[in-house]
Design brief:
The protein has about 375 residues and is α+β, with helices and mostly antiparallel strands. The protein has 11 helices and 7 strands. It has 2 domains: about 220 residues, Orthogonal Bundle (Globin-like); about 140 residues, 2-Layer Sandwich (Heat Shock Protein 90), CATH 3.30.565.
Length: about 375
């Protein structure tokens, strides 16, 4: 008897055996009933049996062994995604999902081999069965991971959005208090420190909001209006100096620096680069902006320990930091999103951003058109 025939003939017994194991890995408070557990195994086994009866070329078998997703809309993949969604909704962990497939594989093969099948066909049948199990397992893990990441991103996005209102209230209140002429010098200093800390918190929350929006598939919103990069650079430098009074920032502007950009976003990019330079560098920080023809180039540079070469390829990836310690203000207030946001802003302006670190000097070079068209991030 072929393995596919064995599965269909002994479906009830195989499902019962698998369900008994599935109950052991399920949570004590799971909402999955025994009927739901049985139906899930029944769907998986029936579609595996059907897949095993489909003809398969050597090339297709080789592609499967390499994990190629030859048909992401196949019935096996669809059932695997539904299984992952169902388990995630009922509180199963990813290890539990993997364990279910492992138990299903072992149960079916153990029972089938006890029937003494035709030895000439055993290996080929087992290969086809294992291919189907592996394909479904890979798709279930992929779906589970994608859904989990999306849930995390949604939570982070909602959190960042909801935190903006109370944080804005704190900032406005601090501004009002600072205008009270009756405050003692020590009180003014305390309120100013609280205000600077709140500004840094707002910057982190804004970065988190941009991160979650891009992760969830939204394009980074940009509004191109006539701007002068010299003003934007100086405003960004002033903002960073307010939070880091000891920072020495030199702004130099050359050439034709007028253009159409999103001034708020370019300012955010510069502030992120300058804060990064203050926290991880030493000595003077340079901001050099030059416009020539249709191109604008901005270079932010600082002295200090070089960024390790191994860190450069992933420097602009989200939630990633180079392995060098912040020099200013103790532990870094960054969540590892600042440089990722910089890349998103550069891409939204049809531009690029690159980092270099040699000879005790680190530079970030941003190149954008002076009059960009709208781009996808």
């Amino acid at each position: 008897m072929s393995l596919s025939d064995f599965i269909e003939t002994n479906l009830s017994a195989l499902v019962a055996d698998w369900t008994e194991y599935a109950r052991t890995v399920s949570l004590t408070d799971t909402r999955l009933t025994e009927t739901q557990l049985r139906n899930s195994a029944c769907d998986i086994l029936m579609w595996i049996a059907a897949d095993m009866r489909e003809p398969q070329t050597d090339a297709q078998q080789k592609a499967k062994s390499y994990g190629d997703r030859h048909d992401a809309q196949s019935a096996l993949d669809r059932v695997a995604r539904e299984h992952a969604d169902d388990r995630l909704a009922h509180g199963y962990g990813i290890n539990d999902v993997v364990a279910e497939y492992r138990a299903l594989r072992a149960s079916v093969l153990r029972e089938w081999l006890q029937t003494s099948p035709d030895r000439a066909a055993v290996f080929q049948e087992m290969i086809r069965f294992n291919e189907a199990i592996d394909q479904m397992l890979a798709e279930s893990v992929r779906q589970y991971a994608q859904r989990t990441e999306r849930i995390r991103d949604l939570f982070a996005g909602v959190l960042a959005h909801d935190l903006r209102s109370p944080l804005g209230a704190i900032l406005n209140s601090a501004e009002i208090v600072l205008h009270d002429s009756g405050l003692s010098p020590s009180t003014v200093r305390a309120v100013a420190i609280a205000q600077r800390g709140t500004v840094r918190m707002k910057r982190m929350i804004d970065d988190l909001l941009v991160f979650t929006r891009t992760r969830l598939g939204d394009t980074l919103p940009v509004d191109f209006t006539s701007q002068d990069i010299g003003r934007i650079c100086n405003d960004a430098a002033d903002e960073v100096r307010a939070s880091y009074p000891d920072a020495r920032i030199d702004v130099r502007v050359m050439g034709d620096t007028a253009g159409k950009w999103d001034g708020v976003r370019i300012g955010q990019l510069l502030v992120n680069l300058l804060v990064n330079a203050v926290q991880h560098g030493s000595g003077n920080i340079g901001v050099d902006a030059s416009g020539q023809g249709g191109q604008l180039t901005i270079v932010v540079s600082n002295e200090g320990d070089p960024i390790p070469a191994v860190a450069l390829p992933t420097l602009f990836d989200p939630l990633t930091r180079a392995s060098h310690s912040p020099r200013q203000g103790g532990a870094s207030s960054s969540m590892g999103l600042g440089l990722y946001i910089c890349r998103c802003i550069a891409h939204a302006h049809n531009g690029t951003i690159q980092a270099g670190s040699t000879g005790g000097r680190t530079t970030f070079t941003v190149q954008i058109p002076r009059f960009p068209v709208r781009a996808l991030t």
